């Protein structure tokens, strides 16, 4: 029997490309440029499986009954770039990669917190510019994280892992908002108080870290009113999705001093980043590095491969999305 035809929309770690190339008739996007929606639409007519990622866009208009594709093996946990309802209505199975990127994304949330609180980006820029004039007691004074309050918005796997690091490493008090009650077993050993609303979390937090999925109802969850609550010494961390923050309201809040600073790994409309943000010293900007370690990027790829293997063997897929 012919091997299923599979398209990877971007380059993946070598070990996973090798595994898939052994077991499937794989097409690689060798020059690694993002594919247009039209190219992905055409691929849905040509391939048995398409494996997209967060840099792709799969709106409802791409899915029709003439598709050859039967499974979308998404490389990543977030699937807000895929119109899931339309994909399912067209008979597609959609899978994602939950769990394997939890530690790395939580690590990056802490990286942003520390860089922001300790003004590490500012300091590095100063040194590289040749402007460092030596140690002095008043140079680049930051803020201690130890003992401060971390507010988690979205207490899922990554929110919990971030809270554990902040509490275990820095003795931070943790408050959180989650739409539904969190399984107490997942919170074992963590002292964390669930508050009734996101605004309550913002008001209580010195640092607010976002861990809710993007898209749909979560768009612009954090806007001007929430920045007012976070207050002039408050810091915002976003490793989730850019669209959960009202980006214009964030820029306005930073410019007005409504909040103290922001540490961002994701942007609404990325990879474009508003110039206003790039000019601010009290903002740490990373290029969507949450899951970017070799171990995790390989694990994500193997998870996609496991889902494809199960699907084409007629078994239940281990990680259905949504
Ligand atoms: O951002 C990365 C992911 O959603 O996996």
From TrEMBL:
Signal peptide: none annotated. GO terms for cellular component: cytosol. InterPro entries: D-isomer_2-hydroxyacid_DH, D-isomer_2_OHA_DH_cat_dom, D-isomer_DH_CS1, D-isomer_DH_NAD-bd, NAD(P)-bd_dom_sf. Residues 110-290 form the D-isomer specific 2-hydroxyacid dehydrogenase NAD-binding domain. Residues 7-320 form the D-isomer specific 2-hydroxyacid dehydrogenase catalytic domain. Coiled coil: none annotated. Keywords: NAD, Oxidoreductase. The keyword Oxidoreductase applies. The keyword Nucleotide-binding does not apply. One of its GO terms (molecular function) is glyoxylate reductase (NADPH) activity. It holds the Pfam family 2-Hacid_dh. Belongs to the D-isomer specific 2-hydroxyacid dehydrogenase family. This is Glyoxylate reductase. It comes from Roseivivax marinus. The lineage of its organism: Bacteria, Pseudomonadati, Pseudomonadota, Alphaproteobacteria, Rhodobacterales.
């Amino acid at each position: 029997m012919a091997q299923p035809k599979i398209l990877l929309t971007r380059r993946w770690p070598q070990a996973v490309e090798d595994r898939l190339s052994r077991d499937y008739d794989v097409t690689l996007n060798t020059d690694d440029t993002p594919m247009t929606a039209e190219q992905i639409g055409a691929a849905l007519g040509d391939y048995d499986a398409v494996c997209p990622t967060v840099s792709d866009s799969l709106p409802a208009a791409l899915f029709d009954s003439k598709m050859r594709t039967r499974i979308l093996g998404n490389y990543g946990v977030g699937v807000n770039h895929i119109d899931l309802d339309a994909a399912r209505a067209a008979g597609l199975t959609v899978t994602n990669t939950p769990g394997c990127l939890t530690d790395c994304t939580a690590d990056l949330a802490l990286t942003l917190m520390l860089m922001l609180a300790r003004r590490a980006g500012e300091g590095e820029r100063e040194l590289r510019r040749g402007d460092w004039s030596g140690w002095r007691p008043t140079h680049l004074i930051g803020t201690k994280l130890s003992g401060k309050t971390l507010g988690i918005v979205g207490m899922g796997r990554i929110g919990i892992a971030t809270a554990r690091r902040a509490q275990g490493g820095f003795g931070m008090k943790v408050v959180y908002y989650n739409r539904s009650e969190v399984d107490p077993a997942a919170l074992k050993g963590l002292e964390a108080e669930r508050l009734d609303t996101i605004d309550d979390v913002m008001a209580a937090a010195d640092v607010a870290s976002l861990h809710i999925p993007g898209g749909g109802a979560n768009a612009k969850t954090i806007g001007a009113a929430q920045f007012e609550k976070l207050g002039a010494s408050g810091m915002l961390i976003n490793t989730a999705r850019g669209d959960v923050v009202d980006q214009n309201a964030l820029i306005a809040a930073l410019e007005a001093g409504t909040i103290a600073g922001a540490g961002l790994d994701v942007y609404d409309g990325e990879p474009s980043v508003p110039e206003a943000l790039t000019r601010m010293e009290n903002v740490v900007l990373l290029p969507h590095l949450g899951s970017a370690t070799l171990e995790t990027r390989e694990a994500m790829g193997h998870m996609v491969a496991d889902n494809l293997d199960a699907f084409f063997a007629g078994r239940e897929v281990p990680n259905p999305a949504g």
